[in-house]
Protein 1
Amino acid sequence: MNFSETSREVFQVDEKTKLLTYIWMPKTKPRAILIGIHGGMAHAGDWVTPALFFMKKDIATYAPDLRWHGTYPQYNPGGKVYFHIDSYDQYANDVAKFVGWVKSRHPGIPIFIIAHSNGALIALYYGLTIGQDEDIKGFILSSPWLKNKVEVPPILLKLSKILVKIVPTLAIKPEPLIGKLTHDKDITARHYADEAAGLRGTHASVRLGVESMKTQEWVLNNIAFWKKFPVFAVVAGQDMLADPEVSESALKKIPAKLLTYHRYEENYHENFNELNREKIFIQISQWINKILSEKTDQTTSSKKGTTHKSKQSKRKR
């Protein structure tokens, strides 16, 4: 299917794994690049809505289909589409390599990470671990999946911890989710079409259940150590997938000087596909512009300082 991308390329993340990447590139040289990390059971084409908005602002978007999502089976023999991962370290390593790949193609262009739901959980984990020293200008997070909105029965939790040791790739079908993602009927229809085309998953593995809960707990216990990257976060008040109260509480542990926080009570889970999305995109655009202007000011000040020192050196001679 076409998602109005300007091009697609295959990213070789390791010897065995290829991830199709959707690229939305403005006509002029981009002044910034967004790296999109999609949510569980979704795919990279879902970034079409924000990507088209930011293209008009001369900002490019690169978004890969994560492992076991979207077009994964087309490029990886034996692959299938379902919500599965061996560990969140695997996700973080994939993000690290992808960031390096994008930077090698666009040296000197500022990079931002934009992530939704499970993608936001991945982004937070990455930013707190192997990505903490990376040159990333900021993180844009929507509905971070830090706690399931629907509680899992204790007996099922116990069973999952047993099953993951026996059949980790066992797939379980959760309750239907598509109708709980956005109030936009057109985008909901697109989601159903993507599911029918095999791009959206309908099952999740036992391994994913165990690994996600372990990573959620780790991020909740460590998010207060977030010290470097500016964060723009938006939480949906009517979120029926990710608990908005837990997300809000966790995000507000990020130092206030780094956090720009918005909560929209009327939104379902997918803020970037909601009816008020343009308002959110404008807020993000303004936030990006502020960061880029601060970077320009710092560069200018640095150059002036160098020039001043150079003149002093000549006088001494």
Note: Residues 7-306 form a domain with the Rossmann fold fold (CATH 3.40.50.1820).
Protein 2
Amino acid sequence: MIETLIIADDLTGAADCAVSCATAGADTVVLLDANADPGGATAASVDVNSRAMMVQEAGAAVTGAVQHLYSKSTRILYHKIDSTLRGNWPSELAHIRQAATDVLGYAPFVIVAPAFPGAGRATIDGHVFVNGTPLENTGLWKQADATQSADLRTIVADVGLKVGVVTLEQVALGTEALKARLAKWADAGCDVVVCDAQIEDNLLTVAAASLMLPGKPLWVGSAGLMRALVRAGEGEVVPTSAPIRAAAGKPIFIVVGSASSVSHTQFEALAEEQGVVPVTILPSTLRESSAPERVQSCAQTLDAALASGVDVAVTIRGEEVNFQAGPRLAAALAVLIAARLPRVGGLIVTGGETARAILDRAGISGLRMQGEIEPGAPVGISIGDFAIPVITKAGAFGDHMTLTRCRAILRGGRSNHSNSTMSG
């Protein structure tokens, strides 16, 4: 029976939320297909892969996931959204709420709290801030080509839902006071309440108060709120203590598919490590118009590196990349990587789009989550024709040594990490 159901729009987000359940002891899977068998897991996180979809297509995707996996026995229904508000999440929220209503017989009260203090994301007076800067004034907002306001009240109201806001001052009054305020909003006919949060304790208060509400709320947030819900309901979330290693004698594939400058800095640090062969692929090589011999040359380079038994780090860069070209490049890169996965002992991949494309192409239907290497770097074992450890990481998460530490863990070493800075 699925007690916790997470609906996410990309793979790294699905895994980052799911790992909170795994580290609290729940049998947890990440599914790439909502119709896949969760295999007896009590927590399931579904990547509906909807971030780049058209709005209507995204709505249908999340509706199907809820219809297939949600039941009256499910305790937590969680809509994982991007902490910088990318994607189709407002429309998805309306569809998820309606699908849950069809199951429950009543419309769930919605708690929206996208803050992720560990990654520098806060919500103040219903507005998202990134490292103290209003989201609208950041490069992230411009990169996503967003033109609308980042005021959560306006965004949610635009999909026809009645919205209220709980301020930081009100959250700071504590769990009981917040529970009473949320109940008043619900009694007044409010559909959604946006909750401010600036520090981890704010999210923990929101989680604890909302868990005390009657009925079954629908929670909406990033990995930060999910972690708080697990802590409030189950206990402390801690990094896994179980050793997770790559298959002995086989190389590790590290794939950087994100355009984030943070990921490229991590790649450069990794490329300096002994036993790592760095391979840079030009975007033009992966485009459909590229000469086949260039792709063949890349394939031969990868094969030679893998045959030597060393770890291989692959990235796409060297030319300006159009944001809209991302899906096509990820798919082309997946063709090169996926065919070689059965020969490796582990996979580390940054960028949800790239991770999804590679696993799909390799016939991997999901991940059984084991824990996290560090915050923002969850690890699971692939479900499918072969089982290898897979670490996924959002592009802008971590410090410059994150990929190096992930590789060291899979190689059987220990991480010296403490208090990693997550900037994405």
Note: The two ends are 33 Å apart (CA to CA).
Protein 3
Amino acid sequence: MNSLRKKLDLFINDFPMDEICKCISEKYSIERKNVEQLIETFSNETKVTLNLVESHLSTDKRLLEVGAGLCFFSLFLKKEGYNIVALEPALGGFGVFEKIKDEILQYYSNIGLEVLNIPVEGLNISENGQFDIVFSNNVIEHIPNLDESFSSMKKILSKNAIMLHSCPNYLIPYEPHFGIPVIKHFSDISKTFFKIELKPNFDVWDSLNFITYFDVKRISNKNNLHVIFKKEVLYNSLLRMDQDDIFYKRHSGGGIYRIYSFIKKLKLLILIKYLPPMLSTPMVFSMALKNDKGN
């Protein structure tokens, strides 16, 4: 898998940033730095997505990336010979990135990636077939109909399939997109106090469903799915502050960085490693069909 990581680095490094940014900014009168920032963020997150799925990857499995964003990761896997389909409805909260995505897909049209422009709840086995791996990174929190969406994803799973998802856990009162404190059932207080409607990406807020650890447990029970939460996720996420320059730039102005710096100075960071998944944000979890014995 190390070779795959190196290939992903090459794929991202070879991306024609100047050419694509110039084309988009001139064609749609969008400020270039905004285009660069969006592309930089999504391309950087492909490394996290690879960490999420790499141990399960196989060229004989059929993959579905839910909420593929600018489709960087799906394009990369398709280029490397994986049987992958990307789903990206771009429904609300993401402004101009549909235009950026179209330019990127056009540039890599020779790869032949299949992209489904439907909501997650629109998935069905008759039209989309079955998948062996269904995954998403920082997408689940933007899905408006969680119950319907997970029900649809379950229906397109093959017998031994697995779902892999990473998303915020709003049981922890922190909103990572805006770097502000928030309590799920009192989110309007944060919206008003921090004047979200005046921020350039305010529409992202309206796309949030504020999913929690207990929502995932409830949904898995409702759909007869076996769920496992990964440990040490918050710890590893905090370490990115020192290891990932782009991640640091995105979060250095938020409350989570100040908390991280405080914990680090007190030499208490190692304690975060032992927090239960329920108290972790983000949360990473896998879901699979239960067998006849309920396991």
Note: The longest strand covers residues 157-167.
